[in-house]
Structures are given as C-alpha cells and as structure tokens.
C-alpha cells in the first residue's frame, strides 16, 4: 500500500510530538485519523471491476465480447461516436474527394504508443494494411474493400476505395476492432493474437494473472484527458451471483454491462447496503430473432406471421426486464438514421389471429397435445441461441411458452458462440437470436452483413425476390446519393418486416451497479456496450 508524502509527513510530526512534548491519547487518535484518511484517498485511486471471461486475447483482431470491458483502456480509434455523430479522436479531421472514393485523415500530432513508438501515418498504414488481409474483417467494409493506403506526410494518410459509400467512415468508429495498435505487436499473417497489448489509450496493461485478474496502470504520458484512477484491476468472476457477492463484500467496486448483470441481479444488488445502480435511459441495441424462410416449416409466410402475432413482447419486457426496456415494434430504435419510414404491417400480440394464420395453411389442432399437425407431422420448430448473450435463454423459454399457446412446439438449443454462428450461417435453425449492434452500425452494417456470413443470408435466399433485395443492399452500399439511400432503406425495412425475416423483441439497455461509498455515478456513453472509464464519477 502506498502512503502519500503528506501521510509520511503526518507520521513524522506525530513522532516528533511524542518525543519532544508528549502526546495525549486524543491527539494520537487525531493524527491516526489523518493517516487513515490519506490512505483511504490513495486507495480510492484504484478501481476494481470484473469480467465473466479472462482477457487472454485483448487485441483488435476479433470482436470478443469480453474485451468490451477493457479495450477502451488500451486502444483508441481514429474517430468515435458521440452525441449521435462521428467526431475526431486520433484523427483530428478528415475529408473526402469529390468522387467520394478517397478518404484523407489528418492525424493528431505528438502521440506515442505505450511502447514509446510514434503514432503517425506510417503506423496507421501498417494497421490498416494488416487488417485488410485479416479474414475476420470481411464484414467491415471500410477495411475489406480498401484498395490502397497512402502516406501523404508524417501525419496525413489517404485511403482509396473502389467506389463511394456514405458508410465507410462509420466503420472507423469500432472501438474493439478498428482501434490503432503499435506496429511492433503485429506479426504478418498472424490474425489470432498480438505479441503484446499496446495501444495509445489512457491505461497500460501491467500484468495478467491467469484465473484471477488483469491489471492496468494509468498512462502518465497519455495525450488526452488524464483519467482519475491510477490503477484498474479487472477481476475474472464467471458467475453472476459471485459478482454480486464480490460487490457486496467490497472485493470489486463496479459491475458493468447487460452481459454481466441481469435485471434481477440489478434489483438484488441495489437492495444491498451502500450499493447503487443505474439503467441507461437510452437503448444500446435491439433484442432480435431471425426467422428462417429457407427452412421447411418457416418457408410458409403464414407460419412466420403466426409466430409474429404469437410472441407476447410486452410480457417479456415487463417480466424479464422489469419494465425497463420498451417493446420493439420496429427493427431499429427511434432516431436511427434512415429508418423513420412508414411500415406496411404491424404484428400485435393476438393469439386468435396467430391460430388463424396457422389454420389457413391447412394445419389442424390436436386437442390432446394442443399442437397443430398436418399429414401426421407436428408443427415443430428449432430455436437456437448463443448462451453467452444477455437474456438469450430466458427469452427463448418465454417464446417457447408463448408459441406453445398457439399450438407450435418449440425445441430450444443453447450453443457456444462459434457453433451457434456456424449453424446459423448454414441454416440449421428455424428461429435464432441475432441482436442488432447499435449506434453507428445501424441500419447500414446490419443489412450489408445480411448478405454475407450471417444467418440472415440463408433466410433471405428463401424469398422469391432475393436477388432484388440483394441488389438494393449492394446499391446503397456503393453510392453517396443520400436521397436514394433513404428510398432504398424504406424498401429494405418493409421487405424485412412484411416477410417476417426479423422479429424484434425489445430495445435492450445497459446497466451498472457500484459501491456508492466510492463511486457517485456513471455517465453512459453513446456506445454503451463498451465500458468507459471516463464515465465513472468518483465519490469525492
């Protein structure tokens, strides 16, 4: 434990007083209290948070969700998303050529990586060239589609694209995968790990203890606003209950994010002495399901519409989120660019209407099982979900119960991330979870990725007008005519809705609980799925 100079001075003075004049018990207690106060102040400069998975690969190579708690400590992107707009970060300004095919970044000057390597145009070029070859970046068009990265001068870099797009700049906001890493950590051809964890951010990784924690210390040479905390300890605590117990015991100071805290956890935690919490007022993303039109059962539009009418979203919002999340009538939250369009059909919760759609397709209810049948076959569907996704199991069970009430049998299968994703891309599902990504990715990236290695692709292929939809997505991705882009999104949103490709459930929010004796409040950022150390307001 460190003791500040003032604390040492107080100790020295106490000894001198004892030696020269003697000291009453009361005076000794007063001096000791000063010392304790100074130690407490020093300790308050250390913040302990937690993660459900170890930070074994804290890199910008893949979108590992566990890194969302710490990537902002180490890495920074060229631009970032604030107050619903893209603003400067490591790049102080940018501009496009008249054709919209060359993006030029002017970089901040005088910044160094944690290893003292200069941040400059050469380091940006090396990072972008490396990412361009990384197969994990196929869904990030600004990297996957770039043709050339040119160093104009020490702090100017120009990126050439084959065609214009309104949305290339959005991709540079990704904090987890589009941030800048030291050129010294890159191994050509190695897209699995870096040789070290080195960025330009406000903290430096000091140590990693397997099975226990990762420690970060403040970057005293940081170019931006100096963070309050001198040390951040990220403890590895995989179980929900253990995280709340650790918060209550004082082992950790703060637990952040919907992936680590359910609404029930939040209620339990905030009922404890000195534990406070906040639910973000603004949604992070949309909790969403994909319906597979290419599957044998859901190729029938009537069954998909029956499901849309059969899921009680309001009950899910009130039961699983305790009323904190709003029912999602649309795929994207209100205010999302290009999505303020009139939707042709709204699917309210209506059991009778759901059954009408099922019976319209020739299914007959088996009174003994309460499941519809046709030609001796039950109306049964497979619902898959990623087990690590917040509320994924709970929503699956709620949907299963709802659809059981309209005569559809649901078999649920929770899977690890890779298995769930691969099976989804291969079409091995009738319903699967697939949340939106929120903020600067919506709606552009949601639709462009749906034509790639994404479970949407196989579902869209089941539609007669698949090629038309694919063409619309390709067009908006490759033009800078904003009015035409608006027209295309109106088409895409209605095609998606009318064909029940996606079934949005609620608009998800992030949460935080913390030790109220140490932390006054937390200010959520515009990209709340990432923990923001500058959002923590100390209680002094």
From TrEMBL:
PROSITE patterns: PROKAR_LIPOPROTEIN. Residues 85-450 form the Solute-binding protein family domain. Gene3D superfamilies: Dipeptide-binding Protein, Domain 3, Periplasmic binding protein-like II. InterPro entries: Peptide/Ni-bd, SBP_5, SBP_5_dom. One of its GO terms (molecular function) is peptide transmembrane transporter activity. It comes from the Bacteria. It holds the Pfam family SBP_bac_5. One of its GO terms (biological process) is peptide transport. One of its GO terms (cellular component) is outer membrane-bounded periplasmic space. This is Nickel ABC transporter substrate-binding protein. It comes from Tissierella pigra. The lineage of its organism: Bacteria, Bacillati, Bacillota, Tissierellia, Tissierellales.
């Amino acid at each position: 434990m460190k003791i500040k100079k003032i604390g040492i001075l107080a100790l020295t003075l106490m000894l001198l007083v004892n030696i020269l004049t003697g000291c009453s018990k009361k005076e000794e207690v007063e001096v000791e209290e000063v010392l304790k106060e100074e130690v407490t102040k020093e300790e308050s400069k250390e913040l302990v948070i937690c993660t459900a998975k170890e930070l074994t690969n804290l890199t910008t190579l893949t979108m590992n969700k566990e890194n969302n708690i710490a990537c902002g400590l180490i890495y920074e992107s060229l631009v970032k998303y604030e107050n619903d707009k893209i603003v400067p970060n490591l790049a102080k300004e940018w501009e496009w050529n008249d054709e919209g095919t060359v993006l030029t970044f002017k970089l901040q000057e005088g910044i160094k990586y944690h290893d003292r390597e200069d941040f400059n145009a050469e380091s940006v070029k090396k990072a972008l060239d490396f990412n361009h070859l990384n197969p994990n970046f196929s869904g990030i068009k600004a990297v996957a589609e770039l043709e050339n990265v040119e160093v104009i001068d020490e702090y100017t870099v120009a990126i050439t694209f084959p065609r214009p797009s309104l949305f290339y700049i959005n991709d540079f906001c990704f904090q987890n995968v589009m941030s800048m890493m030291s050129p010294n950590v890159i191994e050509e051809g190695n897209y699995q790990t870096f040789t070290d964890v080195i960025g330009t951010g406000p903290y430096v990784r000091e140590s990693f203890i397997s099975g226990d924690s990762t420690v970060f210390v403040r970057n005293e040479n940081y170019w931006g606003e100096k963070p309050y905390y001198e040390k951040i300890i990220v403890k590895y605590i995989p179980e929900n209950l253990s995280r709340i117990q650790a918060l209550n015991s004082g082992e950790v100071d703060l637990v952040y994010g919907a992936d680590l805290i359910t609404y029930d956890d939040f209620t339990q935690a905030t009922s404890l002495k000195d534990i406070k919490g906040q639910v973000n007022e603004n949604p992070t993303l949309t909790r969403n399901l994909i319906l597979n039109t290419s599957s044998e059962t859901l190729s029938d539009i009537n069954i998909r519409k029956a499901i849309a009418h059969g899921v009680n979203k309001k009950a899910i919002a009130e039961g699983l989120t305790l009323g904190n999340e709003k029912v999602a009538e649309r795929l994207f939250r209100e205010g999302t660019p290009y999505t303020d369009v009139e939707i042709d059909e709204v699917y309210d919760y209506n059991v009778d209407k759901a059954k009408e759609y099922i019976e319209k397709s020739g299914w007959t209810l088996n009174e003994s099982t309460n499941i519809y049948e046709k030609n001796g076959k039950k109306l049964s569907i497979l619902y898959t979900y990623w087990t690590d996704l917040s509320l994924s199991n709970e929503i699956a069970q709620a949907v299963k119960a709802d659809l059981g009430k309209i005569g559809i049998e649901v078999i649920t299968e929770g899977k690890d991330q890779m298995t769930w994703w691969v099976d989804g891309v291969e079409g091995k599902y009738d319903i699967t979870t697939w949340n939106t990504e929120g903020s600067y990715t919506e709606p552009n990236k949601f639709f462009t990725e749906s034509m790639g290695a994404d479970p949407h692709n196989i579902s869209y292929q089941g539609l007669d007008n698949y090629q038309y939809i694919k063409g619309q997505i390709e067009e908006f991705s490759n033009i800078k005519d904003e009015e035409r882009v608006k027209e295309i999104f109106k088409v895409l949103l209605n095609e998606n809705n009318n064909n029940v490709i996606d079934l949005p459930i609620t608009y998800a929010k992030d949460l935080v609980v913390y030790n109220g004796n140490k932390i006054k409040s937390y200010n959520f950022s515009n990209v709340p799925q990432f923990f923001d150390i500058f959002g923590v307001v100390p209680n002094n």
